[in-house]
Amino acid sequence: MSKITRQGVLDVLNEVGTAFLNTARYGARTLQRMSWPALLVACILMAMILTLLPLALLLFAALLLLKLAVGACILERRSKARPPERHS
To answer: Which chain regions cross the lipid bilayer (predicted)?
Structure first.
């Protein structure tokens, strides 16, 4: 396994920065080539995605926690209602 050096970390950060800038330039060129109606549709779709995705994740997490809580309550009731088994 190779050692992590300061120069190696700086090289990786430089590469990440270059990749980010290239992606940003590509996106800017794509936006410049789009017509106004296409740009409007892209903005509306992005707004819908940024609005609905967190809502869907929140609802998923909330319903999962509700399911776990109900399951824990049912298991607790079953264990209290059933007398302990005797081993012979």
So the answer is: 34-50
Report d(CA 54, CA 8) in Å as an integer. Answer: 36
Q: How far is CA 79 from the centre of its chain?
A: 37
pLDDT tens figures, 26-82: 999 999 999 999 999 999 999 999 999 999 999 999 999 999 999 998 888 888 777
Q: What is the pTM of this model?
A: 0.50
Q: Alpha-carbon distance 70 to 67, whole Å?
A: 5
Instruction: Please name the residues in contact with 34: beta carbons below 8 A apart, sequence gap of 6 or more.
Output: 42
The answer for residues whose C-beta is within 8 angstroms of residue 39's C-beta and 6 or more apart is: 31
Domain ranges of the chain: 1-80
